[in-house]
Every structure is written in C-alpha cells, then in structure tokens.
C-alpha cells in the first residue's frame, strides 16, 4: 500500500493525486515506498510539574509560608520555668521576651497529665493546687514528673492540716 508524501493518507496504486490534500503523487515507485510511516514520532511536548516559573513559585511559597510558620511555632514553644521556694518564674518567647512571676505558698497537691505524645517525648502538663490562691498550671513542660516532684517536696502536711481546719 502507498501513502501520500504530504498528508500520509493511504492511496490506491493507480492514483495520480491525493484525494485528501490534492498533492500530486510521485510516479517513481522508489520514492513512494518509504514516503510515510504513520507511527513515526515527529514531535513530543512534555510539561513538567514545576513548569516554566514553577521553581520560583515553589521557592517563594516556601519563603512566604513555611519559614514564618516554623518561626512562629518555635517562638511560641520556647520558654523556661524556674521554681523557687515561694514563686515561679516563666520566661518565654524567641522574638518578644515575656516574663511572668507568680507567687505561691502552701502547696496542697500536684498532678501530671501526659498524653501518648507526651509519654513518648517526655512532655506534659503539671497542675499545682495551692491554698487560698489561683491554682498553678504549667503546660507542655519537659520532664513533667520531675517538675511535679519539686512541688511535691513543698507540700507541708502540718500547714495543710491547719488550713483545712480553719
């Protein structure tokens, strides 16, 4: 079977012009034998995920969203707790420093709350019940059982009985 050298459509042996494009068919049989291969790839265009400006867009989105998010998380989760015999000092913040001092006396009880994630990474919440004052709560404390142990040593059973009787 012969094919048109211009449009690639099939031709019969005795046609002198292509019925599809009107091009004259070459009468020389040698040239018409290899005129057209319908499966030959002539051009392929690929589009990548990143595209023309994709790298720039990815880089810009990383700068605008990911880095500020990480800074905010670190800034809000960076703090220290110092426990004294009559007060607790919380200092926190990476960008803006915040100091909070809370006075306390007469610890009644201490409790620790650790979830599964806290048990794995040794973080948790420590709640301290105080006599006659607002209770103390420390959230996301590293080594919460150790912190609770410090407060448990402050429980004075003699003062506790006296406050409970009054």
From TrEMBL:
Q: Where is the Zinc-ribbon domain?
A: 3-25
TM spans, by residue? Answer: 50-75
* Pfam families according to UniProt: bPH_2, Zn_Ribbon_1
From what superkingdom does this record's organism come?
Bacteria
Where the record annotates domain YdbS-like PH, the positions are 79-148
Q: Which UniProt keywords apply?
A: Membrane, Transmembrane, Transmembrane helix
What InterPro entries does the record tag this protein with? YdbS-like_PH, Zinc_ribbon_dom
Q: Where is the signal peptide?
A: none
This protein is called: Zinc-ribbon domain-containing protein
